[in-house]
Amino acid sequence: MRVGVRLWGALRSFRTMSGSSAHNPLIAVCQVTSTANKEENLSTCSALIREASARNAAMVFLPEAFDYIGGSTEETLSLAESLEGALIQQYAALARECRLWLSLGGFHEKGPNWEKDRRISNSHLLLDDTGCIRSIYRKAHLFDVELQSGVSLKESSFTIPGVELVPPVCTPVGKVGLAICYDLRFPEMSLALSREGAEILTYPSAFIVTTGLAHWEVLLRARAIENQCYVVAAAQTGSHNQRRTSYGHAMVVDPWGAVVAQCREGPGLCYAEIDLPCLHRVRREMPVQNHRRADLYGTVGKKSQG
């Protein structure tokens, strides 16, 4: 019993180790219900961004498919744009107006051979407070599933898989590593980003309800704990059309694995301070990265020769 009390006390001390500080940057994490109406989606997201700006947030995170969710493959493709199109220009202007950074978590970007193959990339864009694109990550792990519940999705039928991870980006809230939704299930990716200096891992998502109920929070907390990073997960929520419903529960997890912010039902925002001194203390006191045995991984059952 005493051991249990001591462990709980240690947990509480890590969660509250540096407390709230006016010097910690504030982030805002969006939860929305995108439809095929791009103008309405833009209006909803713009209102949330301006609300976050009024709260002095330094950075706002939007979910996967912030631009739209189509009711069919044909509709999805018909609404796609290029990076030079009107929608991204409007978000760039919004970043300049509100003087904050934007994580645009999953944009339907026309592929390089669009006129020939009609394929898109699922692209995560990072915009700075001048509206410039600072990084683009194109989703590497595509969501192709056939669940017993009857859910069947094949993202690869119209989406080009990304071919590289992008380096973490220095932002006013810390070094941000970019991923998208299904990437959450591949810890190798988060480990690669944290090795490159990521302090915040971001997983903008449109999780379906079945997998959201089972796996959403536990996976987000696992990625935070094993990498000793903040994890930021903007999310889609509710019914988009007759075929698609998302789980929601946008949240922020701290480097100790505690959920420090979470959206309620429906569209909205949650806020969290990013306490980098806290993160660095966690890493100093439990130096997991230094303890990794890269010399052993991938060699299970193989004895050294000679």
From TrEMBL:
Keywords: Hydrolase. Residues 25-276 form the CN hydrolase domain. It holds the Pfam family CN_hydrolase. InterPro entries: C-N_Hydrolase, C-N_Hydrolase_sf, Nit1/2_C-N_Hydrolase, UPF0012_CS. The keyword Hydrolase applies. It comes from the Eukaryota. Belongs to the carbon-nitrogen hydrolase superfamily. NIT1/NIT2 family. This is CN hydrolase domain-containing protein. It comes from Staurois parvus. The lineage of its organism: Eukaryota, Metazoa, Chordata, Craniata, Vertebrata.
